[in-house]
């Protein structure tokens, strides 16, 4: 099948790792790292709030693990409405939506909420005729595990040992 005849539902990634808006940037980074992805949908129930990119996460990084564990990824999202498409959207229109919004990934949503994600790489694979067979079912995983930063305990001010912050 040629790229012109494909739809978002035929091209999208169906098994996704997503994060909730109240999760920390530290958790988002670890999810991206372990899943080997560069885009992380931020979802609140069935509602897609946005797509966080690895680059956005890296440029917003400040401080160490403790500071990152107290922030929320929902605060890092663009305030503009997130571009999105439906499963039946033609691939050419998906590409136009991505270009118009200036993004390299768009969530695919249905009445049930997030059902997939299309990246610029997916569009290129479709145009190059390098798509594998589409799978019928998918799954959205939110928070496969939970991370808590482990920091050394502070010592008492009158203690001879110095804390890690004083070293």
Helix content: 25-40%
Structural class, from secondary structure content? Answer: alpha+beta
What fraction strand? 15-25%
Count of helix runs = 6
Q: Please tally the β strands and state the result.
A: 6
> How big is the Rg?
19 Å
Strand order of the largest sheet: 1-6
Largest sheet data: 2 strands, parallel
pLDDT average, as an integer? Answer: 79
Quaternary class: single chain
Q: What are the secondary-structure elements, in order, as H or E?
A: HEHEEHHHEEHE
End-to-end Cα distance, whole Å, is: 63 Å
- Spatial shape: elongated
Q: Runs with pLDDT <50, length 5+?
A: 142-152, 162-167
Written overview of the protein:
This protein has 6 helices and 6 strands; from the N terminus they run H-E-H-E-E-H-H-H-E-E-H-E. The protein has 167 residues and is α+β, with helices and mostly antiparallel strands. A two-stranded parallel sheet has the order 1-6. Strands 2-3 form a two-stranded antiparallel ribbon. Helix content is 28%, strand content 20%. It is elongated.
Task: Draw up the topology in text.
Layout: H1 8-11, E1 15-18, H2 25-35, E2 39-44, E3 47-53, H3 54-60, H4 65-70, H5 91-101, E4 105-110, E5 113-119, H6 120-127, E6 139-142
Parallel strand pairs: 1-6
Antiparallel strand pairs: 2-3, 4-5
Supply database-style keywords.
167 residues, alpha+beta, two-stranded antiparallel ribbon, elongated
What would you say about this model in short?
By secondary structure, this protein is α+β, with helices and mostly antiparallel strands. Helix content is 28%, strand content 20%. The strands form three sheets. A two-stranded parallel ribbon has the order 1-6. Strands 2-3 form a two-stranded antiparallel ribbon. A two-stranded antiparallel sheet has the order 4-5.
